Amino acid sequence: MDVEQRISNLLKLGKLRSTSVRKLVLKEFLEAGTTAISSYEIEKKFEDLDRITLYRTLKTFEEVGIIHQAVDVSGRSKYAICSEDCSTHQHEDHHAHFYCKKCEKTVCLDNVKIPRPNLPADFQLEDSQLVLSGVCGACR
Ligand SMILES: [Zn+2]
Ligand SMILES: [Zn+2]
Ligand SMILES: [Zn+2]
User: Fold this and answer.
1) Could you tell me if residue 67 is inside a domain?
2) Domain total for the chain?
3) 33: left (phi over 0), alpha (psi -120 to 50) or beta
4) What is the pLDDT of residues 16-65, one digit of tens each?
5) d(CA 72, CA 37)
C-alpha cells in the first residue's frame, strides 16, 4: 500500500475530512514510522503552516486514534503513529518509548509492553508512559 493510500485510509477510519494540512502532517508521521516527532519539528519543516492549525490537527489525530503521545525524558511531548489497534474510543499503545541521548530521537518499542499497575478499584487509568533512555542501535 502506498503512502497516499494509507493516508486516505486513516482519514476514512477516523471519519475525518481530507484537507491538505491533514494529509501533509499524516505523511510526516507515516514516514517517521516508529520515530516520534514533535510539533516543533513539523513546524520547522513547513514554515507556512499555521501553528494553531497544526496544533488542532495533532489533537484531532490523537483523539481519533491515529497518533499517540510519546513523552521523552525531559517531558516534552512528541507524537508517533499508532498501531492498528487504536480507535476513537481507546488507544492501545501500552508500549515503552526509548529516548536516545545521542541523536535525541524517541522511538516506539512496540514489543516492550508497559505492565498494568494494580490500582485501587475506584481509580481509572487514562494514560501511562514508560520512557527508557540510552543509545539507539544507529548511534552505537
Ligand atoms: Zn493509539
Ligand atoms: Zn540514536
Ligand atoms: Zn509509541
Assistant:
1) yes
2) 1
3) left
4) 999 999 999 999 999 999 999 999 999 999 989 999 999 999 999 999 99
5) 11
Contact at 8 Å (CB) between 114 and 94? yes
CA of 19 to the centre of ligand 1 (A): 21
Exposed, middle or buried, 107 (CB in 10 Å: 0-12/13-18/19+)?
A: buried
Say which CATH number the domain at 30 has: 1.10.10.10
Query: Which ligand lies nearest the alpha carbon of 70?
Result: 3
Which residues, in sequence order, are bridge partners of residue 99? 106, 133
Average pLDDT of span 108-137: 92
What pTM did the predictor assign?
0.90
CA of 85 to the centre of ligand 3 (A): 12
pLDDT band at 75 (very low <50, low <70, confident <90, very high): confident
**Residue 4 included in any domain:** no
